[in-house]
Amino acid sequence: MKRIDLSPFELQVFLVLAETGSFRSVAQHFALSQPAVSRAVARIEQRIGARLFDRTSRSVVPTPQGEALLPIARRVIHDLTTSLDEITQSLSAIGGHVAIAALPSIASAILPPLFARLRRDDPEIRLSIIDTLLDGVTGAVAQGEVDFGIAVEPSRRLPDLVFEPLTTDRFVAVLSATHVLAQRQELAWADLAAHPFVAMTRVTSVRQLTDHGFLDAGCEVEPAFEVSHLASAGALVSAGLGATALPELALKAFDTGGITARPLNAPVVHRAICLVRRRGRTLSPTAALVCQRLRMLDL
Description:
It contains eleven helices and twelve strands. The chain is an alpha/beta fold. α1 packs across α2 (23-30).
């Protein structure tokens, strides 16, 4: 049996002509010329292998074969329209799960106000966080384990990822309130180099930037302590065992009771906080909304 191949457009032309009985009405409906409509109808009849309309000078009416095709054409167009509407709703729907990877210092400082806003304005969105070091963030984004990440841009080039700047975060000196340097309003990196220093481990992005700060200041520093977690650094500083240098947003990651922060100069060191996405990957509508809310935060 020969397969009949009709396009949705051709079925719509057939339906409009059957309902209006006028080639002119079909032409106006589809913004076509009447000869173009006549050719389309002839092509439909050729593919069907039967005459579908009886034409007179006054009317165009379906033949028995045309009448038989009418309910089939209506069902096909209805099902197609319904399916396309469902796809449109699915593509534009806001809801479901969004996964984010972020540096610990960023996760504790930026994500809570973001999540609070989303819970208030878009409670149907479920969120999860992977708080990890820089390689973990970039790896999770590159492997598609999360929708996007928030981190600093690494020194090495990662062509599969896109880094969109969100804000900058200045490094400050972090000291106990009783530290000898706490009486000063501003400090230089050389000032910290003269006292016991609490450093983050070398695998962290914070450590890489503090090393650059001391290097640019012409100082060599042997840390008195090396820690992996910001809370540990805060505890050591609070206990008077040393001072440290951290991005200002990182102070939200631990209890700052008994701790004071001072701007660091000579040099001024900033870290650029970026939205990290996989190149060539389109975010879901929900993930795109979360990114939009993130950009709107007063960071």
